[in-house]
Specification:
Dihydrodipicolinate Reductase, domain 2, six-stranded parallel β-sheet
Length: about 250
């Protein structure tokens, strides 16, 4: 498969390494935050699929340009999903395919499924308060992370006693019906997410700890292999649903 890398920072290089290990050819490397070349047929080198890891401010334009060029896309940038309807319109009009996720680590997506199961069980134990903590490297722009937001949305769906989530503590006592999400940006932390259940006598934690960026890269390349030739907008969970039900 011929791949284009849109975004050639640390994640782009990690994707390139994994792609080459799996026998794919990288035919284009474009970094819209540094490169003056526009994304289009002339710069994509005949790619079958583009893997996009850039920054929120340019992601939507990148996705639209890839769709217009007839190239399927895997999008790992977070912080743009409030414009998903706009993106879906562009992708569907072009007849291309796209997979997007707040986190392409296959381990994280297993973690999200386990967190949903844990929340369903914890909902019966009102004495356990639930919270989320996440930590990433100091270069990450968005906070909470896209994964933490996905995690919070899952827990809100499953916990009847939580009505909403918040990334900030109130000036007064925390509201018992709010799920609180704490963020840290420090050093070169690859990524850590914790669901905590705090009881009167003990604490339970469900944790995912990323050791390197390779896990995210492996999931992105697997998604590129899956999306090729499909039309429409999909999430990584759509892809994994085939794995868990087959």
């Amino acid at each position: 498969m011929k791949l284009a890398l849109v975004g050639y920072g640390k994640m782009g290089r990690a994707v390139e390494s994994v792609a080459m290990e799996r026998g794919h050819e990288v035919v284009a490397r474009i970094d819209p935050t540094l490169d003056t070349r526009e994304i289009g047929a002339a710069t994509l080198g005949g790619a079958d699929v583009a893997i996009e890891f850039t920054v929120p401010g340019v992601a939507v334009d990148n996705i639209a340009a890839l769709a217009a060029a007839g190239v399927d896309a895997v999008v790992g940038t977070t912080g743009w999903h409030e414009r998903l309807d706009e993106v879906a319109t562009a992708v569907n009009a072009a007849g291309t395919g796209m997979v997007h996720a707040t986190n392409f680590s296959l381990g994280v997506n297993l973690f999200l499924r386990l967190a949903r199961m844990a929340a369903k069980m914890a909902d019966a134990l009102s004495e356990y308060d639930v919270h989320i903590r996440e930590a990433h490297h100091r270069h990450k722009i968005d906070h909470p992370s896209g994964t933490a937001i996905t995690l919070a949305d899952i827990l809100i769906e499953e916990l009847a006693r939580k009505e909403s989530w918040s990334a900030t503590l109130p000036d007064s006592a925390p509201h018992p019906q709010v799920l609180y999400v704490a963020s840290e940006r420090v050093g070169e932390t690859a990524g850590s997410h914790i669901v905590g259940l705090e009881g009167p006598d003990d604490r339970i934690e469900l944790r995912h700890e990323a050791r390197t960026r390779a896990g995210f890269a492996r999931g992105a390349v697997a998604a590129a292999e899956w999306i090729r030739g499909r039309s429409g907008v999909f999430t990584l969970d759509d892809m994994l649903a085939e794995t868990f039900t087959s």
